[in-house]
Predict the structure of Troponin I.
Amino acid sequence: MGEDRQTEMDKKKAEVRARLEAQATSRKGKSGFMTPERKKKLRLLLRKNAAEELKKEQERKAAERRRVIDQRCGTAKSLEGLSEDQIRAICKQYHGRIAEIENDKYDMEKEVEFKDYRINELNMAVNDLRGKFIKPTLKKVSKYENKFAKLQKKAAEFNFRNQLKVVQKKEFTMDNGEPGDKRRDWAADEGKHKKGATKEEMAAAA
């Protein structure tokens, strides 16, 4: 009984192993299409195709430019075997054509300037409509009354007169008629001076 069970388990393991090997081989066969060598060739082909397309586009633009130049300027006229009057007439035609082209050039330049100005104005209007230049939100400010009350309180705290020390000295004080007053009586001195002057005048007159 035990041998039959062991044999059955070995058989199942062999089947599972065979199934896994088959799946692994099938995966290898499927993933082998885009090899690194094929990827490299594909990149080279894409680059070559892009370079050819770019070259064709450049040639097409050059041909279009030459066609427009020939159409606007015309082909050069042959001057061989022409008389002086005929050459002068051709020069006048060239001069008139150049003047006409310069006028067209000036008109086109002014038109381009005007269009650039209009584009700039429209861009500014679009920016304003989108709100691109939004004003920044203002910070919340406290009431002025509370602010001034705080300032007054600080000013009272830093009052210099309250912080100064009181010094009691009599050097710069003025006494009012106290005994021992040593102030000079200027009125008495002036009277003495006048009396001395009258005595000198009388002696000089005698």
Observations:
- The CA atoms of residues 20 and 26 lie 10 Å apart.
- The chain has six helices and no strands.
- Residues 84-132 form one domain.
